[in-house]
Design goal:
By secondary structure, the protein is an alpha/beta fold. The protein contains 17 helices and 13 strands. Strands 5-2-1-6-7-8 form a 6-stranded parallel sheet, with helices on both faces. A 3-stranded antiparallel sheet has the order 9-10-11, with helices on one face. Strands 3-4 form a two-stranded antiparallel sheet. Helix 1 crosses helix 6 and helix 6 packs across helix 7. The longest helix is centred in the middle third of the chain and has 24 residues. InterPro entries: CoA-transferase_III_domain, CoA-Trfase_fam_III, CoA-Trfase_III_dom3_sf, CoA-Trfase_III_dom_1_sf.
Length: 404
């Protein structure tokens, strides 16, 4: 084991995306993550395809791309938690773990004796993190919650999309992913508290809460002004020009962050007088006169190619860039240099490997290690049970009963 979290053990009762995103991050940082899955079924996302990794014979495996996205650096143990023997086994495992993470419906694990209070009895200093759609309290607590609902109810869809179009969700499950990130931070903070005081605790995280938390500037625009933000397409609410603009051979992004950058942009565009126009002298003025400025810019930006804009503005320190398709992203030399595409062994697959998205964290002393590819269902069941002290006879009995 390596990494800053080496020596920590996570009992992972999560599935889908928010919880697995969090536990994958902890696994990347060195924690030993034991993923509990249903015997014969596994995480629901294993079947959320196509696409699937191909087996050696060209057929589809049980590893969907969706599942692969958030389950590396974990070991899979199948346990039937509906059976008393399975519940007893989970509690036995929890006694030797630092963290339990779960994303069942509110009260869903209490009936199995696997809720925080039950786990605290076997491990008093356990850190227990629950992720739900709406949290453990409040009028919506009993409801099922999904990323799509959180994006809609939490305001994100109301500010995403074209001004005259319908509300639009973000292209990936961003509410789930961000909730997973908040969960990781909360777990690490709780572990820090435990290490100082010996006291574990319960963490209650909701998709809707975290969605509201990352409304950031648009949320504060409303709280500060009382004006309801609306969709602006690719424009920015508080910065102008900050948009996708046409060029001679396509489109490019311009992201002017201050007045000096705007003046350099205007000079490079061959219109230095625009930088001196009293309507556009400051960002506040440009925001107030955004329509007038955006009416003028396309005629200027169409005069140069994409490469001319991106390379020329980069030399001047003015942020700009292309709108890459996903294939171009993973062919980009900067992305490749930074290790954002990784390949891990995946025995039984058509190529013997599987490509994954890398971790963006770069440590100077404890680098992220890609120790394990996303596991097959129950791949590590016997290995894990032996580590936790179960005898061969106990393991055989659990297998015979279909518990593991």
């Amino acid at each position: 084991m390596s990494g800053p979290l080496s020596g920590l053990r996570i009992l992972d009762l999560t599935r889908i995306l928010a919880g697995p995103t969090s536990t994958q991050l902890l696994g990347d940082l060195g924690a030993d993550v034991i993923k509990i899955e249903r015997p014969g079924e596994g995480d629901d996302t294993r079947r959320w395809g196509p696409p699937y990794v191909k087996n050696a014979d060209g057929s589809d495996s049980d590893a969907s791309a969706y599942y692969l996205s958030s389950n590396r650096n974990k070991r899979s143990l199948t346990v039937d938690i509906a059976a008393p023997e399975g519940q007893a086994l989970i509690r036995r495992l929890a006694a030797s773990c630092d963290v339990v993470a779960e994303n069942f419906k509110v009260g869903g694990l209490a009936k199995f004796g696997l809720d925080y209070l039950s786990m605290k009895e076997v491990k008093p200093d356990i850190v227990y993190c629950s992720i739900t759609g709406f949290g453990q309290t409040g009028p919506y607590a009993p409801r099922a919650g999904y990323d799509y609902l959180a994006q809609g109810m939490g305001g994100m869809m109301s500010i995403t999309g074209e001004p005259d179009g319908q509300p639009m969700k973000v292209g990936v499950g961003i509410a789930d992913v961000m909730c997973g990130m908040y969960a990781s931070v909360a777990i690490l903070a709780a572990l820090r508290h435990r290490d100082r005081t010996g006291q574990g605790q319960y963490i209650d995280l909701a998709l809707l809460d975290t969605q509201v938390a990352w409304l950031v500037n648009e949320g504060l625009n409303y709280l500060t002004s009382g004006k309801v933000p609306h969709r602006r397409g690719t424009e920015h609410a508080n910065i102008v020009p900050y948009n996708v603009l046409p060029c001679a051979d396509g489109h490019f992004i311009i992201a002017v962050g201050n007045d000096r950058q705007f003046q350099r942009f205007c000079a490079f565009a061959g219109a230095p007088e625009l930088g001196e126009d009293p309507r556009f002298l400051t960002n506040s003025l440009r925001v107030a006169n955004r329509d007038a400025l955006y009416d003028l810019l396309p005629e200027l930006t169409r005069r140069k190619t994409l490469d001319e804009w991106v390379n020329g503005l980069a030399e001047l320190g003015v942020p700009s860039g292309p709108v890459n398709t996903i294939d171009r992203v993973f062919a980009d030399p900067q992305i490749l240099h930074r290790g954002m595409k990784v390949s891990l062994p995946f025995p039984g697959s058509e190529t013997g490997t599987v490509d994954l998205i890398g971790n963006p964290i770069k440590f100077s002393e404890t680098p992220v290690a890609y120790r394990r590819p996303p596991p097959r269902v129950g791949e590590h069941s016997e290995e894990v049970l032996r580590e936790f002290g179960l005898s061969e006879d106990e393991i055989a009995k659990l297998r015979d009963k279909g518990i593991v």
